[in-house]
Design brief:
Layout (H helix, E strand, L loop, with lengths): L3 E4 L6 E4 L9 H14 L1 E4 L7 H8 L16 E2 L2 E8 L30 E8 L7 E5 H6 L3 H7 L3 E4 L12 H10 L3 E4 L1 E3 L6 E3 L5 E4 L4 H15 L5 E4 L6 E5 L3 E5 L10 E7 L7 E2 L8 H11 L1
Parallel strand pairs: 2-3
Antiparallel strand pairs: 1-2, 3-14, 4-5, 5-16, 6-14, 6-16, 7-13, 7-15, 8-9, 8-12, 9-17, 10-11
2-oxoglutaric acid binds next to β6, β15 and β16.
């Protein structure tokens, strides 16, 4: 069967048909899909409801090295297959799932670590009757549409990313949250990053950033508010309305995303995710600087740089 790739949105998104998930991809098909991914940023594959977890893993490996999910709570991993993460409203081992409210603010996967993810392949197994769409923002476009003066100002800046700003983290199991904080102290990343494969610049901004290095708290807060608002403007968004059997593959190196909570959380939503490991360590720990307040932390990091 012939592969076809149909754009779904101007900012991002294309639907791919004609892929046989049960067989390894030949090189030319793999190259076609990989190039389409870099171009369209988000690829949607339909009709994968019969995919076995092993096939999901094998298919995902076409796009990069898989993350073993060491940073995640073990209960949220597929039994016996740590390459698959369960994002679900369904209880796990009789307890509320700690991934039931994952992705509720705009974020870039693992930007609170020194090695943000390359991307992910999310497969919808069960979904609520209505709602629970996932939105993706194209951050090449948000960078490229800024004025040259603003871009020149932003280019050398760095931000502090903080896992404690994950929305709803306080509703998760306290032991898990403590462990998450211990493993993920604040990290610093460039505000403008260069995509390792396309060479294009994009904004690394999202709602899990506590401040901009060298700016006062007030300056950083104002600028981040503007940048987040700009980066998530409707023109830059692809909105995915899920059907069971969809696989959505996104490039985490030039995007952010959000999983909307507009659904009945008593209904089952079950997503299986393979995550692509980031190719490079692009961040550094911010913890080497001692400071009482956030503002003095930001100033001290700038002074130490
Ligand atoms: O559940 C979703 O739709 C996406 C959740 C999320 O942020 C992720 O899988 O990285
Ligand atoms: Fe995410």
């Amino acid at each position: 069967m012939m592969i076809s790739i149909t754009p779904l949105g101007y900012a991002a998104g294309a639907e791919v048909t004609g892929v046989d998930f049960t067989q390894p991809l030949d090189n030319s098909t793999r190259d076609t899909l990989y190039s389409a991914w870099l171009k369209h940023i988000v690829l949607v594959f339909k009709g994968a409801e019969q995919l076995t977890p092993e096939q999901h893993i094998a298919f995902s490996r076409n796009f990069g090295k898989l993350d073993g999910h060491e940073s995640q709570v073990p209960e949220t991993l597929y039994p016996g297959l740590p390459e698959i993460l369960l994002i679900t409203t369904k209880p796990i081992q009789g307890k509320p799932s700690s991934s039931r409210n994952a992705g509720r603010n705009w974020h870039t996967d693992l930007s609170y670590s020194t090695r943000p993810a390359k991307g992910a392949l999310l497969l919808c197994k069960e979904k609520p009757e209505v709602g629970s769409d996932t939105l993706f923002a194209n951050h090449y476009l948000s960078y490229e549409t800024l004025s040259p003066t603003m871009r020149a100002f932003l280019d050398p800046l760095e931000c502090v990313h903080d896992a404690t700003l994950i929305k709803g983290i306080e509703k998760r199991d306290p032991a898990h949250v403590a462990e998450m904080k211990r493993r993920n102290p604040p990290v610093i990343h460039p505000l403008v990053r260069v995509h390792p494969e396309t060479g294009r610049k994009s904004l690394l901004v999202n709602e899990r950033i506590s401040g901009i290095v060298g700016l006062t708290d007030e300056e950083g807060t104002m600028l981040l508010r503007f940048l987040n608002q700009h980066a998530t403007a409707q023109e830059f968004i692809y909105r995915h309305r899920w059907s069971v059997g969809d696989i959505v593959l996104w490039d985490n190196r030039c995007t952010s995303h959000i999983a909307l909570a507009d659904f009945d959380t008593n209904q089952a939503r079950l997503m299986l995710r393979c995550s692509l490991e980031g190719e490079v360590v692009s961040g550094r720990l911010a913890e080497r600087v001692e400071a009482e307040s956030k503002e003095s932390l930001l100033q001290a990091i700038a002074a130490a740089a």
